[in-house]
Amino acid sequence: MQAIQSKLSVHAVTSYLGVFKEPRGLIRLFQIIFAILAFATACNGRSSTTLDYGGKDDAIVSSWSYPYRLSRSAIVFTNGTILGTLSTSNDPKSPAEFFLFTSVMAMLLGLTFTFIYVFLSPLYRNNDLFPTLDFFITFIWTIFWLAGSSAWAQGVTNIRSLTDFDNIRQRSGICPSSTVCPDGSVANYGNLIVSVLFGFLNFVLWLGSLWFVFKETRFFKSYTMQQPQVQAPVYPDIGSPTMHPQSYTQSPVVMT
After folding, report:
1. What is the pLDDT of residue 8?
2. Predicted TM-score of the model (pTM)
3. Which of 12, 100, 190, 245 is the most buried (most CB within 10 A)?
4. How many domains does the chain have?
């Protein structure tokens, strides 16, 4: 009896995990992974730019990190004197926070729907409300990914322009030319650029999953049920024993 129960439980778990063999479940796993990569790289964009000033020991340094509030990122001289900030306007803080919100919520939504697919599969298939909510939430978050990635791409462009050597020279007030303040160490924008790529990749994943989620909704099922079923004509096999030759009988002619 225990062996039968164990086989049934293994069969149930296997059938539940079978959703990951479908595009609907497999794409959810990729959405979770790439959402984590998106917000991890966006948050890990800490870097700095250095300008040499006069002697070997003097330098002008400016550092920044998430949420990239460059209006509060100071330009500091070697002795600790604050020469200014990287920006007074056009702060990329809002795009960064919106992108992070979209990424974290996408991860949580992916985990939630994956849990429903695996542990509440009968309820998902028998209740039209769950597939409908799944479709509309997926549609909304597809738009969020497009808007968030586009805004964040512009935000990264602003970060690069506000933290380059020319802007720091201008805003420091003590560097009239590159001769006085030659270029020092260059900032690293690798994580920020990669986060933008992950953002648009997430948009593609969520856009692609719309079709597979839509196929589970009542809208798609009712549409397919209304389509006329065209049956192919069945031709009898000539060599089949079920075919019997037709017999023709001639009725007698009555002469009047």
Report:
1. 39
2. 0.79
3. 100
4. 1
